[in-house]
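Revision sheet: structure tokens.
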Amino acid sequence: MRLTITLIFVFVLTYSIGSVVALPVFDSTVSQLNFDTLRIEMGEFEILYSEELLQPVQATYTVTCPDAFVGECETSIGWRVSRAKEFAGYDVATSKPKHYEKNDWDRGHLIPVASVDCDCASKALTYTYLNCALQDSGLNRGPWKQLEGQERKLAKSIDDEVEIIVDVLFESQSAPMCYGCPTIPSAFRKTIIAGGDTMIYKFPNQDISELELSVFRIH
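Predicted:
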């Protein structure tokens, strides 16, 4: 379906179920797009979110503070489903804590707090289910975590910005984990842009904890 828009816009690449589509980015904080996808700005970060899938489909951020913030933050900083309303202006339908209990799914941060850990405010921005995807625990705690560490190491070693694009991928057979539950992603892709170079990694949403990170680099 072609979406006609009279505003000037730029395109970002993201995924919908079974196809690749170019979604226009509006000059507003939240925009309702096809496939029930929202563009949500959270400070310097950006999330494309699908209420249909109950999952984020893309996140973009810059590794701003690769060294951990040393100050103390309020203990109230944590998982708060209501933050969806804070960022989007209304109660966006998201996944819930119960979807990550007694199973193999982790709350996979698309924007990792350790890569943007400048202060309490930036830390708090990442603790929302808008930034959370159903990610296999073996992936989340294995190669995915290793790659997050590498992006921070890279940010410390060069003068240029390290920009990140995370795509959450779905296939035609992707299905919700239960009735009324989030749809399980089939894969995750991370693009790292720094110093004129681009690195791309793609991971199946499976337990790949025993495999080397280099196996998943596709560019």
